[in-house]
Design brief:
The protein has 120 residues and is mainly α. It has 3 helices and no strands. It starts with 11 loop residues before the first helix and ends with a helix.
Length: 120
């Protein structure tokens, strides 16, 4: 389904387009929230599974997200993170930057896990 472009003002087509855009915006925000909390859903980390398995993983992420909301867990960007310092050697800066990002992601994941466990 696509919006109807250049719909006459006040017509049913304009109302449809307005509601279509509103619904799409809401869905895109939901996808963004899920991708922020569950990194496996990002484009770079494609789920390399059969569509049935991938849909179950996506559903599990949705359920876990709802549990997180119910437990009043902060969004991933709201969790305090301690960063790992890098060596300034330019030849290994890119590798270290990737390693630091991976470490920071691991630290954020552990912080979320610890926070969730403390809420039980």
């Amino acid at each position: 389904m696509t919006p109807i472009l250049n719909a006459p003002h006040g017509s049913r087509e304009e109302l449809y387009t307005t509601r279509h855009v509103q619904a799409r915006t809401c869905i895109e925000r939901c996808f963004g929230l899920l991708k922020t909390r569950w990194r496996c859903l990002l484009r770079d980390r494609v789920l390399h599974y059969h569509p049935n398995v991938a849909s179950k993983i996506t559903l599990a992420c949705c359920v876990l997200h709802n549990i997180s909301l119910h437990a009043h867990l902060p969004a991933p960007s709201d969790i305090p993170v301690t960063t790992v310092d890098d060596n300034d050697d330019s030849s290994t800066q890119t590798t270290q930057s990737t390693t630091t990002e991976n470490r920071n992601e691991l630290i954020r994941g552990r912080a979320m896990l610890n926070y969730l466990i403390s809420r039980l």
